[in-house]
Amino acid sequence: MRDVKKRPRPVDAVPAAGSLPHPTSTRFLAYEELKAATNNFEPASILGEGGFGKVFKGVLSDGTAVAIKRLTSGGQQGDKEFLVEVEMLSRLHHRNLVKLVGYYSNRDSSQNLLCYELVPNGSLEAWLHGPLGVNCPLDWDARMKIALDAARGLAYLHEDSQPCVIHRDFKASNILLENNFHAKVADFGLAKQAPEGRVNYLSTRVMGTFGYVAPEYAMTGHLLVKSDVYSYGVVLLELLTGRKPVDMSQPSGQENLVTWARPILRDKDRLEELVDPRLGGNYPNEDFVRVCTIAAACVAPEASQRPTMGEVVQSLKMVQRVTEYQDSVLTSSTNRPNLRQSSTTFESDGTSSIFSSGPYSGLSVFDNDTISRTAVFSEDLHEGR
Ligand SMILES: Nc1ncnc2c1ncn2[C@@H]1O[C@H](COP(=O)(O)OP(=O)(O)O)[C@@H](O)[C@H]1O
Ligand SMILES: [Mg+2]
């Protein structure tokens, strides 16, 4: 790689990217601007380092706080892939996805940088397993809010973006938090579009992170939308148990979170063994059981038995609505309307199963029939996920 300092670029440089079209909605940023934003990529501004390069904290000249990811060179092929990725990323917009502000690419120096909005409150990984949650661990409500936000981000990639996008590296360190614990999914830039909208995708190199990778992807390289669902299930287990996906300091047999949790998840009388002690016993027991059921379904060994992310969003929303409803019954003297007013026409069949297919379809996770069914699904019809 050539030293970019010897190749100064004017501030309004055009990208040297051959004939590839450049994304219009995402700004091409001058290298000088990114350099100035990060004080020449000074070590003090490093937020962290992942498998694809370092991430720097910075402020653009217009005052936007950003995180700048400097990708390790992938050669000329990598440059081409990079621009294809940027083109794809710039079309994805959702309140639970980290926004791509701009990018820089120079084929001559093989420099590729991505500039994201800064999400200031750390990653879920840092809160669960790192320094952030040490004094004040995430409480149950924050965990459930994060679980739902992250599920919505993934569901958008899978079901609402055209064509469908598989994340491929969904994990706790790719869930970033705002100060109010609103969660955003990051690093879908490493995702590949499913060709022609197909949900099957044979990848040439198996990517992803140890402990999160679905068995079919690890063994055959077959990447499915449902491989993301598996990774999501691992994150849900982390939220429930407070354990890392792989932790060699655990007793023998407990090192791998999914392997340890699976038999316990199958036995309703043992579920308490899973509870994160840092919750201090402050969690609604019924909801814990419900979320365990969702997690168990997501990490099913057979991809076809896992729910879709849309189904996960619906079931997590039901968990939270049931809690809200029960709260409202307890505080009914105040006459506070807890459930969102709505006149949705969604037709629930009234069964309490959360998943329409697979082995979990018969599970009675939601047995509180008193909840107003008209309110349960109303949000989806209006929120424009
Ligand atoms: N947009 C962002 N805002 C704030 N922090 C970020 C942002 N993107 C990445 N980070 C932080 O930078 C670190 C490195 O990120 P990354 O290179 O994606 O590696 P990984 O996700 O494998 O940890 C992570 O700890 C993450 O918290
Ligand atoms: Mg990341």
TrEMBL record:
Task: Look up keyword Transferase and say if it applies.
Answer: yes
Residue positions annotated to bind ATP are K69
Q: Which domain of life is it from?
A: Eukaryota
Q: Does the keyword Transport feature in the UniProt annotation? A: no
Region annotated Disordered sits at 329-352
Instruction: Provide the Protein kinase domain boundaries.
Output: 41-319
Which keywords does the record carry? ATP-binding, Kinase, Nucleotide-binding, Receptor, Serine/threonine-protein kinase, Transferase
Q: Which organism is it from?
A: Morella rubra (Chinese bayberry)
Sorted alphabetically, which InterPro entries does this protein's record hold? Answer: Kinase-like_dom_sf (IPR011009), Prot_kinase_dom (IPR000719), Protein_kinase_ATP_BS (IPR017441), Ser-Thr/Tyr_kinase_cat_dom (IPR001245), Ser/Thr_kinase_AS (IPR008271)
Q: Which GO terms describe its molecular function?
A: ATP binding; protein serine/threonine kinase activity
Q: So what family is this one in? A: Belongs to the protein kinase superfamily.
* Name by which UniProt lists this protein: Receptor-like serine/threonine-protein kinase ALE2
